[in-house]
Amino acid sequence: MLYNLELLLSEVKTINTTFKTRWQNLLKQVGNEYDIPYLIFLGELLAIIDNDPSPQFICQSYSDSDMFGGRNQNWTLKTKNIVLYRSISQEINDSWQHVDVFENSLDIRGLPDDIFIDWSGDFSTLIGGFEIKIGNIDDKKIEAILQLASSLFKKVENTKNES
Question: What residues form DSSP beta bridges with 161?
Fold first, then answer.
C-alpha cells in the first residue's frame, strides 16, 4: 500500500559527525547555518526515494539575507535519477519599501513513477516549521524518512494518509 506523508519539522538538532562527513561540500558552501539541516534533510530524502547512497550538493551561489535583505541562491541536490534545483535572486529596492524578486524557481525532476514532493521552496519557520509532503511512498520509505527527520530535528510532526 502507498501513502502520502506530510511533515512539519522544527527545532534543529546539532548535526552529527556522519552528516558532517557526508555533506562536507554543502557545509563549506552554505554560509547560512540555519539552512544546513534542511538542505541535508532534502538531500537524504532524495537518496531514500531514489535508493542512491551518494547524493550530491552542487552550488553555484548561496547567500541569504545580506544586510540589505537580499538573497542569491543557485543550488542543486542530485541523486542518480532525481534533480532538485533551487534558484532565488532578490534584493530590497532603493526605497526600502519592498523586495524585488528577480527569480524564484524550484524544479524537481526524475522522481520515480507517481512519487511526488510538494514543497514551497522555503525553509521559513514563520509558519512554525519546515513543511513538506511526499506522496505515493511505501511504509519502508516512510520509516526511513521519519528516522532521518528525527536525527536532524527535535520536533517531527507527521501525518500519514492513504494515497
Answer: 4
Q: What is the pLDDT of residue 62?
A: 74
Q: Which residue has the cell 559527525?
A: 17
Q: Which residue carries 547524493 as its cell? A: 55
As given in the structure block, the three cell numbers for residue 19 are: 552528516
Q: What is the pTM of this model?
A: 0.89
159 bridge partner residues: 6
77-118 pLDDT, tens per residue? 999 999 999 988 766 666 556 556 566 789 999 999 899 999
pLDDT digits (tens, 9 = 90+) for 144-158: 999 999 999 999 999
Measure the CA–CA gap between 119 and 3, rounded to whole angstroms.
17
Domain coordinates in residue numbering, the chain = 3-156
* CA distances in angstroms from 111 to 46, 82, 151, listed in the order given: 9, 6, 24
- Element of type H or E holding 41: helix 36-50
- Cβ-proximal residues to 108 (8 Å cutoff; 6+ apart), any chain: 82, 83, 84, 85, 117
Buried b (16+ CB within 10 A) or exposed e, 34-70: ebbbbbbbbbbbbbbbbeeeebbbebeebeeeeeeeb
136 pLDDT higher than 60 = yes
